[in-house]
Amino acid sequence: MSIKVKGFLKDVGGASRVTKLRKEAIENASPVPDPKDHIREVADALHPYAMRFRVTGVRDASPTSKTYRLESLDGHIPVFQSGQYVNFRLRIGESLLTRPYTISSAPYEARGEHPFIEVTIRRNRPYLVPDYFFENVKEGTELDGNMPFGTFYWEPLRDSKNIVALAGGSGITPFCSMAKEIAFGKMADASITILYGSVKSDDIVLKDELEAAEKACPGRVKVVHVLSGDDEWKGEKGFISRELIKKYSGEDPTYMFCGPIAMYNMISGIMDGMGVTCRRFRHDVMNNPADATQIPGYPVGNEKKQYSITVVRGIQEDVIPASGGEPVAVALERAAIPVDTHCRCGECGYCRTKLISGTIFVSPNGDGRRLMDRELGWFHACSAYPTGDLKIKIPIM
Ligand SMILES: Cc1cc2nc3c(=O)[nH]c(=O)nc-3n(C[C@H](O)[C@H](O)[C@H](O)COP(=O)(O)OP(=O)(O)OC[C@H]3O[C@@H](n4cnc5c(N)ncnc54)[C@H](O)[C@@H]3O)c2cc1C
Ligand code: FES
After folding, report:
1. Closest of 128, 76, 110, 296 to residue 186, by C-alpha
2. I need a surface site. Which of 47, 67, 163, 372 has the fewest CB within 10 A?
3. How remote is the CA of residue 328 from the centroid of ligand 2, in Å?
4. What's the gap in Å between 50 CA and the centre of ligand 1?
5. H runs (alpha helix) in the chain
6. Is the pTM of this model over 0.85?
């Protein structure tokens, strides 16, 4: 059967006129490309590919942690939400590496007359990057990085107004930003109760800032320190327990967790026991433990083995050494081959890599690969460990 289309129907919505205008626009267009692409300018301002920061101040945030204040040398700080992080790109010795640090200052502080962000870095034992910061990064130091990243922020369309934050160690940083934004900024009509677990009162990170926010906004910011190893402490003692969580939760809470993986395992068990739904229990990304043998399913013994990785980038091939106890991304970082890591726990996919040959162990903690990627041999270099010699392909950066 054939259908006859009447003339006027062919021009539904004035399509022929649009085509005519389009033709005219093309004919009259300049052969020189417009140097100004306004959409790209806006996109670059919101999500810059690379930024340069200058440290404008360093202060103690506890006996084992320091807060670094940074200004942007690119003229502005992109819009971010409390809970998001900045990703630094560093050269330490021969290594070229990236590390994420949550912004501990509040978004309103990046919009003022002297805009800044702050990161708070903890060094309670020797670490690679915190040692570098503590020893080398001073007022005036310039750093490369970019921001904002991460999805661990309060979203009024999804989360309830009553935030109950459960924090341990340096996991206080996103909640310090939220507490300050609620007290002095514009976080709608949310309130936050922070249950913060530390061992001794000396270990409490950002204590003064938390106190100042609580004092400024007592109805909407509450901080409860829970100390597990301080006999002198007059407040809550022990670990953050089901009883304590219930005591401070109030009506219709959204629980948000940030802290070490051992604490996460404990807290997620409590959440399950309390019947809290996934929607009401949010947690930040988890770094894999430095000791790979602690990852469930890791082939113990592999951490002592040495392998080689052939890295293909375009037409270039490099052969680099790798340890079975370190993720493939660390082998690349040690060899100063640029690899774009952000979350460093397998979730975000920035370090997506193609396995051409060889065998790997993929950490089950936060394995965020798509099903099709798994089937086609893609893996996330930050959370995959070589279990034999490898040949891999990575993008040129
Ligand atoms: C989203 C996010 C936000 C975070 N926010 C904060 C925060 O606000 N404050 C905070 O203190 N921490 C924060 N962290 C943790 C932080 O990113 C670092 O992991 C932490 O400071 C420890 O530093 P490190 O990784 O160098 O530690 P290390 O334990 O010393 O090293 C870890 C890794 O580096 C590898 N490595 C060792 N030597 C080399 C080398 N020469 N070259 C390359 N790699 C090597 C090791 O094999 C190991 O895998 C955050 C982490 C994430 C994922
Ligand atoms: S850095 Fe996020 S998946 Fe590897």
Report:
1. 110
2. 372
3. 11
4. 20
5. 7-10, 15-28, 38-46, 128-136, 173-184, 207-216, 242-249, 261-273, 328-334, 371-376
6. yes
Beta-sheet pairing, 352-357 with 390-393: antiparallel
Instruction: Among 88, 146, 332, 347, name the best residue to mutate to test ligand 2's pocket (greatest count of ligand atoms within 8 A of Cβ).
Output: 347
Q: Could you state, in order of their start, the residue ranges of all structural domains in the chain?
A: 48-149, 162-283, 295-393
For a substitution probing ligand 1, which of 62, 330, 341, 344 has the most ligand atoms within 8 Å of its CB? 330
Measuring CA to CA, how many Å separate 118 from each of 72, 130, 136, 147, 269? 11, 15, 17, 12, 33
Residue 266 pairs in a beta bridge with: none
Q: Give yes or no for residue 351 CB within 6 A of ligand 2.
A: yes
Q: Which fold has domain 162-283?
A: Rossmann fold (3.40.50)
Give the residue, out of 344, 354, 378, with the most ligand 2 atoms within 8 A of its beta carbon, to mutate for a pocket test: 344
Cross-strand partners of 251: none
Three-class SS of residue 327?
Answer: coil
CATH number for the 48-149 domain, one of 2.40.30.10, 3.40.50.1110, 3.40.1160.10, 2.40.50.140?
Answer: 2.40.30.10
Longest dimension (CA), the chain: 91
Res. 324 pLDDT band, cuts 50 70 90: very high
* More reliable by pLDDT, 48 or 356: 356
In CATH terms, the fold of domain 295-393 is Ubiquitin-like (UB roll) (3.10.20)
**Alpha-carbon span 213 to 7, nearest angstrom:** 69
Helix ranges, 185-235 (H): 207-216
Helix/strand/coil for 79:
coil
Crossing angle for the helix pair 242-249 and 261-273, to the nearest 10 degrees: 70
Helix (H) or strand (E) holding 101: strand 95-102
Share of the chain above pLDDT 90, in %: 78
**Ligand 2 center–CA 394 separation, angstroms:** 13
Element (H, E) at 272: helix 261-273
- Count of beta carbons in the 10 Å neighbourhood of residue 334: 18
Fold agreement (162-283, 295-393): no
pLDDT in tens, 19-40: 788 888 888 887 777 777 888 8
User: Is ligand 2 within 6 A of the CB of residue 341?
Assistant: yes
CA distance 160 to 173: 21
Cβ atoms of 205 and 124 within 8 Å: the answer is no
- Asked if residues 104 and 176 have their Cβ atoms less than 8 Å apart, the reply is yes
